[in-house]
């Protein structure tokens, strides 16, 4: 395919001349952001609305307005592939603009690959299975930011948050239920935050919400009409089937930047309540960087991945919001999550509803018993020796789901799917499977804690959470494994030196590590020592580590300081793993002598002679 044809495919997806977002109207417990689309001189609009159960905004505060503008802008990040221009009207500083641009570019590629190149039954026939286009950019839109005086009025704002207070992005699914139970057992002040609207999507949360509302003091709900705005856009594109809402599917027609809508909706509560940690329920296999017909992508799961947590945590820190975002469940498979929820928290397991086609009964909400998610949940519960009726499935539902597994299979990572089928055979749940659904195979790592430098690094959560959390998880797992050279090897995480590795997104984690590890002295970080401390320390050690990192592009989803950030964190980790006296870690040299990326804005470099002289 030549460049002209490739550009034509991408340009064919432009359906709107312009999308205007904002300006956002802020009230004490409500915001409204107009979304206006223009097509051939005609315009239509709809308001995105968020409502909180308590007052969360100071309507006179620039920082409140800035946060409200960011909340209102998240849905628009899905539509950079379909608009010639997107105008964000409001208060956006440079960090906000960079975040929106980077995420819009990343999301445009994700949607193109996972919604248009991959088959998508929710689209009209002429827009399915498009030819793959390899391009430096997939964002069709020119992004413009307009506001008073042409820029942000809010300035930098430090939130005074408490790391002992944690918010759970809550629903009725197993991941958020288990995250709540674990957080409570770890001794933290837990705030379940349900961000959703009325309708089918909210049905999945009703059973859990009612239970938490009656038993957990800090439970709250944020109402938003995001699903309605998404569906409005879907219809306006002309690419989505008219009957898409009647098709039983766990996929959405066009959107892939969804979790961020909920996350940003929770942030005003974190600010008001002084909550320092936001916990998302995502497992091991939602971090998946792959190639689809030559195009690198995240399998449509970027907003559920470790990368997403890291990017958001870094954004929060840059804004001064003092929030870190992570999942307690990163080392766990879906099957192991279900096992721990069933065995440790049966009262929460009873409230589990993972089905997006759930319906109201007389006393509670019940799953449909027909969709792929229901097949998966019923299958896992039976494979683990449980009873699906606890979660609202009747006998007909169970038989229908198992028949569906035999003939259609389930959507899980390959190793997890094979191990599930292995457990079926071991428990004589089923005798045989249709050949097209795959084969049964024992994959022991599925029931172990899995640590992988990219998907689930050992420092994936702060140290004060990490040690007690692993101890709890080990009671229900078959051990732990570490990915090394493409193979799983048995691993003792609590016996590893790297168990004390610093969590990179909290400034005060270091003090906890120092108080608990062997280096209880004055530290080994040059830039954080006083001159008398340094003078005393260099009498004991003559080894130093000098981190050097370029300021250059790293794709549309990572910041320009990625090399420097990684170099400094790696230097600290190496020093932490050494015996006393630990080597000194020198301040970072944040410039390199590599000019390959000159064409990208923001690249800084120095001459080789200058860098050599600086180092030596």
Textual characterization of the structure:
The protein is α/β, with parallel strands linked by helices. It has 18 helices and 20 strands. The chain has helices spanning 3-11, 62-73, 94-117, 174-185, 200-215, 226-237, 259-273, 306-319, 334-344, 346-349, 372-383, 395-408, 414-426, 463-474, 509-516, 531-537, 562-577, 608-615, and strands at residues 18-21, 25-27, 30-39, 42-52, 85-89, 142-146, 162-170, 189-196, 220-224, 275-279, 290-292, 295-297, 324-326, 359-360, 365-366, 449-451, 480-484, 487-490, 544-545, 584-585. Strands 1, 2, 3, 4, 5, 6, 7, 8, 9, 10 and 13 form an eleven-stranded mixed beta sheet that branches. Strands 16-17-18 form a three-stranded mixed beta sheet, with no helix packed on it. The longest helix is centred in the first third of the chain and has 24 residues, at 94-117. The chain starts with a helix and ends with a helix. The model is unreliable at 508-522 (pLDDT under 50).
